[in-house]
Amino acid sequence: MLKSGRHRVGEVVQVLEKSQRLAERSTERGLLGHLYNDLGLGYCQLRLFPLAVEAFLQALPLCWVPGEQATVLRNLGMAHNALGNYQEAQEFHQKAADLHGSVGQRWEQGRSFGSLAFALSQLGDHKAARDNYLHALQAARDSGDMKGQWQACEGLGAAAARLGQYDQALKYYKEALAQCQKEPDSVRERLVAKLADTVRTHLAQTSAPGRLQAPGGASQVEGTPAKAGSSAAGAQHRSSSGWEDEEFEEGHQEKKEERSANVPMRPGPGRLERPGPRAHFPFVGRGPPRAEYPSILVPNGPQVNRSSKWPRESLSRSCQRRPMESGICTIV
Asked: Which windows of the sequence hold TPR repeats (predicted)?
């Protein structure tokens, strides 16, 4: 139903609610964990993030395998990123990163680091965000995650710009641009805009050392991530474009970071980047997921990931990645 696009939101919600009622009667607790996780992913595609959080919380105690627990934790982080609950998102992504690392899931761990960095950036802790983007970049290199690499570089560029390290920002933006040649034109255009914005700001700072000038025309990011909504309510009503291939985790290409990558910003509710961070929300098989979070990543935000036993998937706004499947998936 979600993939066809021929059904109204109300019809899909009715089916999801019916599935949940049937699940509550089941005695197969192992399967229930997967089912609740899938319900959460369905609600994420509909941008009903509060309901997604409830479903993921029901899935969490039913998933005993570390990799599956990490996947659900990551999905929870993506959903909270989408709602602008960055403090909660930070905690879930940190736990997910630790669990993924404990079982050797380097790809998933890298995406979790990216989503964690996005949440930290939205909380205004750009040094911690930079450190976690560095972890995300190394994990992406270790696991051959090309998308994760350019997303981490983009996040590093934004963090460096906010810290006034413009030479570093230029370096990372250029690296991200060189690695995203197979991505849509919009990604490259965004990076070019950020590069130009950083150059202008750097020149302004150099010519007027005592003045801090805000760059103009900064663009938004989508992934490692994920675009988070500007408010909890807005997250549910945003257009699906907000959840893109960057997904949750992916998404983390932060919405706010994109808005003004070179100027310190106040934290505020954001949307899943395509993390995202995306959202990017992100988050399925052996190779990198195809969706866009975050690091839940449906639309622009996070991607969906499964535990090591399940293929990695990411939800995209129109199932750009792959159709949802049962099993433990994460929002990427």
From this structure: 70-103, 150-183
Residue 18, helix vs strand vs coil: helix
- Rounded Cα distance, 6 and 26, in Å: 30
Dihedral sign, CA of 228, 232, 234, 239?
positive
- Residue 272 belongs to a domain: no
Per the structure, the count of domains in the chain is 1
Cβ contact 172:117 at 8 Å: no
Task: Identify the CATH number of the domain in which residue 171 sits.
Answer: 1.25.40.10
Measured distance CA(321)–CA(316) in Å, rounded: 6
- Among 114, 117, 20, 119, which Cα is nearest to 79's? 119
Asked if 74 and 109 touch (Cβ cutoff 8 Å), the reply is no
pLDDT in tens, 214-258: 443 333 333 333 333 333 333 332 222 222 223 333 444 444 444
Q: Does any domain span residue 291?
A: no
Q: 61-105: per-residue pLDDT in tens?
A: 999 899 999 999 999 999 999 999 999 999 999 999 999 999 999
* Locus of tokens 């150099």: 206
- As a whole number of angstroms, the distance between CA 172 and CA 268 comes to 25
- The label of the residue with tokens 């229930």 reads 32
Does residue 267 sit in helix, strand or coil? coil
Answering whether pTM is above 0.90, one says no
The neighbour count for residue 68, using CB atoms within 10 Å, is 28
Q: Which two tokens stand for residue 250?
A: 């992916």
Nearest to 308 by CA among 73, 111, 139, 67: 67
Fill in the DSSP letter of residue 274: -
221 close to 253: Cβ distance less than 8 angstroms? yes
Give the integer Cα–Cα distance in Å for 74 and 130: 19
